[in-house]
Amino acid sequence: MQPLISHLSTSSGQLFPGTPAVAKGKIVGTAFNGTTQQATVQAYAISNGATGAQLASTATDAQGNFILPIGSYTGPVMLQMVGATYTDVATGRMMTLGASDTLTMVMPTVASGATTSGVWVTPLTAMAQARAQAMGGGMIEVNIMAANTAVGNYFMAPDILHTQPMNPSAPGSAAMATQDMKNYGAVIGAMSQFAKGLTMPTAYSFVTAMMNDAADGMMDGKANGSPIACVDGHHDGPDDDAAECRHKWLSNGDVQLHGVQRELSGATAGDVAAALIQKLNSSSGQLQ
Question: Helices marked H in the chain — which ranges?
């Protein structure tokens, strides 16, 4: 009897051994191509440099924010946004992504059970994902890091995964923005502004064109040597001047944003344009 009494007096009272804790890893972030809502964001494992199994899927809130539970997964992850409605920063109109349109982002690694927060899914991260996917070996960690860095350096917004883009159409958004945030938002605004004047089904088509341009590592208006249509679906010459689209959208004040956006965001042309335009116009186009 005494052994039983001793055992009971020192027992925790638990009848069965404890079960192992379930890893609760998650990715917390925001999708942005102008204020974005009603989007579905999906997380995919990366296996041998290619898109693998879907890890999670969730809806964004009215500001594009999302939380993706990914459990114990560890390794590279690609995020993909589909079905979104967003406010086009050039026109102020609500637009919807087409059935085949996606906005993507790829991270070099996440730790098992960890919370990865403050990430952004944007046109620039989509360009970097397209570049990483096209590199030898595909979306392996070293390529993902190189592609994200190269696109960020090219547009003078070094950390495209974690830097919050200035919203060009949000009143006063420049007041607390860093230069990287201003540059980031200005480039997204410039894409929207350039697309505004083109004849195409959706403004997002220009983002798709930029992804195709970035994939081969050279922003020259070509995809592996073949000219990319200037989004309006036609070429003006035998080569369409190849880089014409790139130079058109980088020049004539597109990166400066039009006057209404400057007034709303509080950013002056000098804030967002001078160094960025100079760098882009003098660039060879190589992502590095």
Answer: 2-10, 123-134, 141-154, 179-196, 205-214, 244-250, 259-265, 269-272, 274-282
Alpha helix ranges (H) inside 135-243: 141-154, 179-196, 205-214
- Predicted TM-score (pTM) of the model is 0.85
Whether 121 is covered by a domain: the verdict is: yes
Give the type of residue at 271: D
What are the tens digits of pLDDT across the range 22-51?
679 999 999 999 999 999 999 999 999 999
Does a structural domain hold residue 175?
A: no
Question: How is residue 138 written in tokens?
Answer: 């595909």
Q: Is 80 in contact with 129 (CB distance < 8 Å)?
A: no
Is residue 76 within 8 Å of 144, Cβ to Cβ?
yes
Residue 115 maps to a domain = yes
- Enclosing domain of residue 45: 25-136
Calpha distance 219→209 (Å, rounded): 11
Domain count, the chain: 1
DSSP 233: S
> Residue 94's domain is classified under what CATH number?
2.60.40.1120
